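Batch manifest, entry 17 of 40.
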Amino acid sequence: VPPILDAAMATSAARKVAVLGSGSFGTAMATLIARNGFDVWMLSRRAHVALSINEQHRNPDYLTAFDLPHNLRATTEPAEALKDAEFVVHCVPLQATEDYLKGIAPHIPAAATVISTSKGLHSQTLEMMCDLIPRVLGPDRPTCFVSGPSFAKELMEKRPTGLVLASKFPVAARQARTLFAGSYTRVYLTQDVVGVELGGALKNIFAMAAGAVEGMGLGMNTTAMLVTRGCKEMTRLAEAMGAKHSTLSDLAGIGDLMLTCYGALSRNRTVGFRLGRGESLEAILATSDEVAEGIATAPAAVQLAQRHGVHAPIMANIAAVLAGAKPASVALTELMNSPMLDLDMDSDE
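Output type: structure tokens
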């Protein structure tokens, strides 16, 4: 173990971390942090999940094949999970975050750093997590935002993984990194919160496009075209909102985009695949166990693009498919028939 991590792990055992949410990613984050030696408490809404984690050391609903560390415990009581916690790791879907945080806010210690792993754009307010958390918990609380190409199952399997942790609070960021960095995880720090947040949100839209291409039985040529042009749209909108180009060309941008668009474990890609096969969104949602963030993000992203004067035809067409305005095959045909500009002239494409 590198000296900087070894020193951090040596003092981590007595430090309490509360993880909000007991889904796949919450379980993976809690496990990663517990493996790094912290005292981890997972807050779950489901009593049977908390009981199983405490007695069987397994999550009965998600990532069920994996044994969980014994220093990872679970509870349904916010006061128990959050009492004396130095860090609060938020793994609750963005659309449910405001009500969720308002309900537990009185129990969050005043000095605790809040770390968000949730991705997306609020369907009504168009807020990112970096907007929502300060609004609900106060602007002075140290906050960090974790993103990057990281499937929960592969984290549980200890596959080497790179993450990005963004924060405007440098001291809190360096401390928060010790929760996640370890023998199979590298964590890169940045102050570009907007770039990291938008990369994590927008890539889910293009993952649905990539899945739809496969669902329609088309090949890698088509997928590569849509993903690459999607990366262009993502970067264009992020830069218009103040993000750095370098952030979007690294792990939190193109890295997460590649994982989500090409990885078989991607929930958003699976939704797109089923849309490409002709299933309705209602039927897909009725048979899905976990949230695909891109469904709510797509129409919100289109509104943001319009607000910032950014032309985003792929995002617009995916939003239209999700709304039932057109099938995926028609959306692709319209994209293929749209005007073409030379690469050095397509800033207005």
